Amino acid sequence: MPGKSPQRVSDSGVCVDQVIQRVGKKITLGLPLGLGKPIHFANALYQRAKADPSLELHIVTALSLVAPEPSAGLEKRFMDPFIERLYGDIPELEYARDVLAHNLPDNVKVSEFFFQAGNFLDNKEQQQRYICTNYTHAMRDLIALGVNVVGQLVAPDTDADYPQQFSLSCNPDLSLDLFTNLRAAETDANPIALVAECNTNLPFFGRDAALPVNTFDLVLETKEPDYPLFSVPQTPISASDHLIGFYASCLLKDGGTLQVGIGSLGSALIYSTCLRHQNNAVWQQLYRKLEVAERFPVADKCGGREPFSKGLYGCSEMMVDGFIYLMEAGVLTRQVYPDAELQEQVNEGRSEPGLANDARLQQGVVMHGGFYLGPRNFYKKLAQLTAEQRQLICMSSVNYINDLNDHRFGNQRLKVAQRVSGRFINSAMQCTLDGAAVSDGLEDGRVLSGVGGQYNFVAMAHELEDARSILTIRSTRTSGAKTSSNIVFSYGHCTIPRHLRDIVITEYGIADLRGKSDEEVYLALIRIADSRFQRGLLEQAQDAGKVNTNFELPAGWQNNTPAAIGHSLNELQQQDLFPPFPFGCEFTDDELKIGKALKQLKADTSTRTGKLLTLLRALLSGTGGKDYASLLQRMQLDNTDSVGTWLERRLLIRGLKKAGL
Question: In 3D, which of 89, 90, 6, 94 has the Cα closest to residue 42?
Fold first, then answer.
């Protein structure tokens, strides 16, 4: 029971025995989002359910991470060694793999409120079991579903500054509040079991993330070596992504607050923000070339051009690796304090007697994060932080971070005082001309990922003074040989409704939508659409009566082309600026070349005619000789022992040549 020392076990099977003895055979298991899942315990419980049909197991979670499964052929040759290198030492989350393979037993079901992007588009069972909820409501919904067991990966109680405490580290987001509420509702008739699984590879974060050991009922400390943390490799930042990130960096106000999401668009923003601070002359050069101030006045009104002398404060449900790079660059330096009166004094620049020596100033942090997930190098950097640096990061409750409601870690007054000049920056898939955003699902209702905390931050941006919601969207997407606009007239689904429209950015500029009339909104979005689709969008808007029929597209709007993107960055990229992997890469140089060739082949074979032509040209491409020796060896195609491998070699060589390698 709470208050007593937890039972420590070294065998996951014994841990499962104790859980069943405590709560019975009807188990609703809550697992943290992403990284914080206790893999040994989760696998042992799942295997027990598979072996015992009388055990009823419902797993409720989000973002169950599994390594990708490549298709046969060249993709498998390319990906298998890479997957082994990254994930070979990490035990697989067995229920998650069985979900993908439709192999769950009848007595087990899995419900998620956020999917690993795209994994379940064609999985009817998971689409039916998906729970649509805002991140701040997820804890409430977990309790309503009857969660009676929670498993959590923790950093062990070995930190001298936090004796007899575990760290929730990567996932205090929901657990901090979930543990408290479950304990409060626990009765003899409705017992719960809180299970900690220790892993020394998990960096120890204190402050809110540190909990007494006796918070838990069971602690699993296996005798086998602790497995590495599941990593998500960096994705390449295209020229278009870089321009989106650059425009977003123009909207950041010195002394402000930053939230940013995962992916290459977030990484592009981080790169341009570091550039603005560390190499401001180059950043300003591009600012002038793009005529940002003249074309998009909101940048000067809401943002800035100078380095960050006051610094930024990070307040983000996900602490992406980019926040560490902002720390290293000297950008993430604005400290906030857990006292509203003190914070207001600091904001106003007051120098009252005694303030300089106020002990509360020692409690400042530059980052509040709810969870983290990222590349291996990110975890390495977290582990290498000094004790002083780690104290500047407070991993905390998502219900503290994602909205303004009073919370036990701080009330609304404190949150408002901390989150000055908030810039809440998230990516979306599509935007309709009335300003609604599509971020997590398709028109037919299938869920791609989930809303997560996006709605929370968009709504908060409208509630805080001088805050803005910024949605970043690539202007187009390409599937096979077809390119489509991501700015569309209408769509059958939205994640962010039109009444919360604010700022939208594509690689072609910034659309300031807040408080504007529908005609102004429609035209602002058409202005930053790809020029191949502008006229069609305008005609739809005019037919609907949303834009005056006399309006003609200005000449200055009609250069939104991929060629113009290349022209904008070409000179700087020749100086090794705006690279595809500014923060490192999990792939080797040879793998990057092969990846480029495979991407070229995929594009060339997207149609039946393309497949036939590519095959014909591959047959005429020759053997490759010594030119591609290391690349062929990496793909195990240096020696061909069958017609199939001979053809794969020819196709690879064709792709390499077509990609200019």
Answer: 94
Q: Report the alpha-carbon distance of residue 463 to residue 82 in Å, rounded.
A: 45
- Six-digit token string for 114: 């956020």
Q: In this structure, what token pair is assigned to residue 117? A: 């992007």
Instruction: State residue 629 phi and psi, 5-degree precision.
Output: -60, -50
The residues, ordered by sequence, that sit 6+ positions from 478 with a Cβ below 8 Å of its Cβ are 484, 603
Q: By CB neighbour count within 10 A (0-12 exposed, 13-18 middle, 19+ buried), where does 225 fall?
A: exposed
User: What distance in Å separates the CA atoms of residue 564 and residue 508, rounded to the nearest whole number?
Assistant: 9
DSSP 372-407: E---HHHHHHHHH--HHHHHTEEE--HHHHSS-S-B
Token pair 């760290």: residue = 167
Q: How many Cβ atoms sit within 10 Å of the Cβ of residue 416?
A: 18
Q: Is the dihedral of CA 451, 441, 509, 569 positive or negative?
A: positive
User: Of the candidates 619, 633, 631, which has an alpha carbon nearest to the alpha carbon of residue 661?
Assistant: 631
Contact assessment for residue 136 and residue 399, using Cβ atoms and an 8 Å cutoff = yes
Q: Is 481 helix (H, G, I), strand (E, B) or coil?
A: coil
pLDDT per residue as tens digits for the range 172-230: 999 999 999 999 999 999 999 999 999 999 999 999 999 999 999 999 999 889 999 99
- Annotate 313-359 with DSSP letters as a single string: EEEEEEE-THHHHHHHHT-S---B-S-HHHHHHHHHT---TTGGG-G
Q: What are phi and psi of 71, to 5 degrees?
A: -75, 160
- Other C-beta atoms within 10 Å of 661: how many? 16
pLDDT value of residue 473: 98
8 Å CB contact between 258 and 266: no
Q: Which of 370, 371, 398, 318 is nearest to 139 (CA)?
A: 398
**Pairing of β 165-167 and β 210-212:** antiparallel
Which three-class secondary structure state does DSSP give residue 619?
Answer: helix
- End-to-end Cα distance, the chain: 64
Q: State the residue for tokens 């591609």.
A: 628
Contacts of 552 (CB under 8 A, 6+ apart): none
Residue with tokens 């857990």: 338
For the beta carbon of residue 534, count every other beta carbon within 10 angstroms. 20
- Angle at which helix 135-144 crosses helix 175-185, to 10 degrees, equals 30
Q: What is the pLDDT of residues 433-483, one digit of tens each?
A: 999 999 999 999 999 999 999 999 999 999 999 999 999 999 999 887 789
* CA distance linking residue 209 with residue 173, whole number of Å: 9
CB-CB contact of 191 with 23 (8 Å):
yes
Q: Which two tokens stand for residue 585?
A: 């890469």
Nearest to 326 by CA among 386, 391, 400, 276: 276
- Residue 189 Cα distances to 7, 12, 20, angstroms: 21, 26, 14
CA distances from 425 to 245, 503, 596 (A): 10, 9, 29
CB 397 within 8 A of CB 173: yes
Cα 174 from chain centroid (whole Å): 17
- Residue in 550, 553, 518, 519 with CA at minimum distance from that of residue 535: 553
Instruction: Name 392's Cβ contacts closer than 8 Å, sequence gap at least 6.
Output: 327, 335, 364, 365, 366, 367
Alpha-carbon span 296 to 570, nearest angstrom: 22
